[in-house]
Specification:
By secondary structure, this protein is α+β, with helices and mostly antiparallel strands. The N terminus is likely disordered.
Length: 282
Amino acid sequence: MDGDNGRVDNLLGLRATDIEQLLLQQGLIEDGTRVASVAPLEMSAAGLLGTVTRLRLEFNPPGADGPRTLILKVPSSDSSLSREMSRVEAQFYADRIADGASIRVPAAYYCRVEEPLLILEDLGEDGFIPQITGCSSAQALQAIREIAKLHARWWNVDLPEGLRWIEPPSDSPAGRFCAHWLRLYRGDWPPALGPVPEILCQRYGEIALRLVSTPWTVVHGDFHSGNLSFGPNRAVTLVDFHRVERATGMVDIARFLATSLQTETRRAIETDLLQEYLRCLE
């Protein structure tokens, strides 16, 4: 590999032949199909806490069946917390948390935990909804039903020893990330927030402890429309699991209501969404 492909090779620590073997193992290409080249493609959106790259694959023979693109995720090189949070996401895939909860997530073709690296199915960009746009009422119901599956699976269940890496907000990498940047910020807060930023800074530890009050469950931690891919037949796929924690399910529900709906839509349907969430848990 050379040119652009060389840059990808350096980032991955993998060669085109390695990707070829991954695809063969997953049954995504047939014997005799070769990955001729791998090149990075520009993405309209990328991760804030890590490096997300779309990889374009060229096959030999050119008309061979196989995925034309993959998603590569690695930590940012300038942040130790990024590495820790990337490790959380890699562990989520390694332990197949989604399988037990029957939620849809991108297929993981390669997963390395200690030096975090993920190669994932590319869902494309059409199914994602910017937070500023907001979900429709029907999409919001789909989202709530999907996250309820994850919450119901782990509702007030003691995590087995092998899943103790799922920590409460007071101890998790995501919690430390939020505390660090909240206290580091020296700019002006919007006047409409009033005393809230000061209260958050002063009482962050206490608030974080309250988020793990029972009943608790395993939460996505960053549940908003930009991390949901809406597909055909009412299918919803969840992405980005770097903030997975053990906390009250309201961590996910409140974030979604506050960030993923236009104000008028939220006011019209929030009670219906909460009732649907409870119905799905039951």
